[in-house]
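User: What would this chain look like folded?
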Amino acid sequence: MTERKCLNLIKKDWEIMSSNPDLMEKAKSWYPTEHDFSKELATKYDWNLQQITGLYAAFSPLKSVSENKKILVNFLNGSRYGHTGRQIDKAELILKTSQFKEIEVILGGMKTQAFYRHIYNPLDKEVTCIDRHCIKYFNQGEMPCITPNRYNMYSNTIKRWSDKVNMYPSEIQATVWLYSKQKYGINI
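Assistant: Here's the prediction, encoded as structure tokens.
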């Protein structure tokens, strides 16, 4: 797989994706909606937005959005279960800092950091969240091992396509994410 092949795949599927108004509306509003959800939690629980979005990202690996949100709210209410000990430990560290960059370091992984940045700022053009559904999309339903180089190739593809169609990378990623879930299913 090359970046050119990835771009050609999006180009081939873009007419189908972009001609579905429901898909496009959901994709464009996904990160802003989750940003607003995070702001509400920040206000309700008296934490900084960067901490709440950091927690949201920390609980995202291998979880559905609904599971992730449930774990997040339970965590804010004092429950320390629902995810691996490692992710719970990251969440505890996030509560000890309000520094954006420190939270990014605590999160560690490229996907988790990008997810954090897009929830915090859906207009961020520097990163792209490449999750399991995006990987599956670019590999026609297969799930190969993801290396940093492969992650960057997918990320660059989405950034390049976002420039071409005048959208944000987060919107293109959400479009591919939703389309992949429709095409390949959600059980990965």
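The CA atoms of residues 7 and 157 lie 6 Å apart. If you want, I can go into more detail on any region.
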